[in-house]
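Quick start: what a row looks like.
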Amino acid sequence: MIRLLILGGTGEAAALARHLADRPNLHVISSLAGRVAAPVLPPGAVRIGGFGGVEGLAAYLAAEGIDAVVDATHPFAARMSFHAAEACKRLGVPLLAFVRPAWAPEPGDRWLPVADMAAAAALCRGRVFLTVGRQELAPFAPSDAWFLIRAIDPPDGPLPAHHQLMLKRGPFTLADEIALLRDHQIDLLVSKNSGGPATHAKIAAARARGLPVVMVERPARPATEQASSLDAVAGWLGRLPHTP
């Protein structure tokens, strides 16, 4: 029995778990960070919670007899990706990064690329639609702008003085996103370059409304082998020794 650990929490990770669920002689364990109060659980075995850094992850891989790891975490979960790379290197466990392609600007887009949240906060003026998750809002707290903050769960830490909180889980349609920007008289969108189709409608809506988008670029990832499709991951598994 080949034991595969999927570092998940993304739609791609859940899709991969479903894709592999019926494979004989392959035992899949999905690991979720536990940052969402009521996550949508993938099929198969699920582990929820952190590992405790590189040492904790390495200990888990050894104790559970993990034969291979697929890092399908969020593109902005860089710390976890570096921990996975180091832990797998120590133990000689094969590692593949399942990375969704980043968004690229299209004709009509008005992107303002920035390297981090502090740089994004410095550009906020007027009425801002802030969609960067609930854990990275502190840099925006000192701003005088008004923010519509959308997240799945209530945010941690300080929030801007002028804001409205919207707790919703995507995906969202283009029509809904256009209506939201119009009804809240949004002047500016702030987004991570998360990639993927699930949250791209807000980018298309900003284009349709002629609004600028402050786009926070992805952090650096470790130099590991990468794949961007389910078939590519399956092919990688097929090349591993003794993989069904």
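That is the whole record. Residues 51 and 113 are 33 Å apart (CA to CA). The longest strand covers residues 26-32.
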